[in-house]
Design a protein that fits this description.
alpha/beta; Quinone Oxidoreductase, Chain A, domain 1; Rossmann fold; six-stranded parallel beta sheet; binds NADP nicotinamide-adenine-dinucleotide phosphate; 2 domains
Length: 299
């Protein structure tokens, strides 16, 4: 039997245990991946702690992880264009990435020039960045204010928007914002005035979820072109909370992995840890001791 990081209940990082599990079988239109690397995201921490158990209930012994990269090990009925041995990066809307084997419905082929680690770090953030920009419908010449511009999603969203000719004002450290082609603005008290001093805002992407919606609405002139990825107060503000249950972004993985392969997309810095240390990875992320993303690796 293969192993996976099993969630033995909701709670602290210690609920994550490396344990034997049944081999997952790909259904129609699915592939099974022999995982080489799996991304850990902020949503995983919230799910493990039980904060999302109403929105995203998990069965007993669930395996977390929305993204992984590896080689195709089996294909389900109806799969075309992909065969065993192919290198892929996958988005796992039904989770299961922290495992030696994972089943995926959405994947893209991994070019040789993209590392397994980068391929595992891309799917969630790449899909969300493309989805949110499409939902906001920002166009060349417009100004986008981005909260969380230094995060995994924000870094990608900044580069994609700048490449489309959008002016990005990014609430993030100055050096990074400028490197990515955005105008930096310091977040925290007084942000709205600092943004107004830079000019009018057409749309806002909140990829931080830290209580910025009142400012966002004031700056965008209403909630219509404000999107948050995680603020639970979204409905109170009449703002769209963009989740994977909304329009997914077809083609997002193909588009972003091609940019990565060409060196035209940069990801948030990440470090690796062996998958058996998933609990320690969660512990370190929660403690705030690690500034980078963590990608779990499988030998
Ligand atoms: N809805 C979906 O489908 C979906 C999918 C993936 C992720 N998410 C959510 O989207 C959010 C971003 O994900 P991520 O992977 O990009 O997270 P991340 O890499 O942890 O980035 C979050 C960023 O927010 C910044 N930040 C914190 N407080 C802020 C504030 N008050 N104003 C502006 N920026 C602030 C942080 O900056 P510092 O480093 O300076 O603290 C950090 O760079 C998370 O809440 C995640 O749960 C949602």
């Amino acid at each position: 039997m293969p192993n996976a990081v099993v969630m033995t209940g909701y709670g602290p990082p210690e609920v994550l245990k490396w344990a034997a599990v049944r081999m997952p079988e790909p259904g129609e239109g699915q592939i099974r991946i022999k995982v080489k690397a799996a991304g850990v995201g902020p949503t995983d921490l919230d799910m493990r702690a039980g904060y999302l158990k109403d929105e995203f209930p998990l069965p007993p012994n669930a395996v977390l992880g929305f993204e992984s990269a590896g080689t195709v090990d089996a294909v389900g009925r109806g799969v075309t264009g992909t065969s065993t041995g192919d290198a892929v990066a996958a988005l796992l809307f039904s989770v299961g990435g922290y495992a030696e084997y994972a089943v995926a419905s959405i994947w893209t082929h991994k070019p040789d020039t993209v590392s397994w680690i980068d391929a595992a770090a891309l799917p969630t953030s790449g899909e969300v960045a493309i989805r949110a920009l499409r939902q906001l419908n920002v166009t060349s010449g417009e100004t986008l204010l981005l909260f969380g511009g230094g995060g995994s999603v924000g870094i990608i969203a900044t580069q994609l928007a700048v490449a489309q000719g959008v002016k990005v004002i990014s609430a993030v450290g100055e050096a990074l914002a400028r490197e990515l082609g955005a105008t930096p603005v310091r977040y925290g008290a007084g942000l709205a005035d600092r943004v107004r001093a830079l000019g009018a805002v057409d749309a806002v992407l909140d990829a931080a979820g830290k209580g910025v919606l009142a400012d966002a609405i004031a700056l965008a002139g209403g909630p219509e072109r404000v999107i948050t990825l995680s603020d639970p107060a979204a409905a109170d503000f009449g703002v769209m909370l963009s989740g994977p249950d909304h329009d997914r972004a077809p083609g997002a993985l193909d588009e972003t992995i091609a940019l990565l392969a060409d060196g035209r997309l940069r990801l948030r810095a990440h470090i690796t840890m062996p998958i058996q240390q998933a609990a320690e990875a969660h512990r370190q992320l929660e403690s705030g001791n690690v500034r980078e993303r963590i990608i779990l690796t499988v030998d």
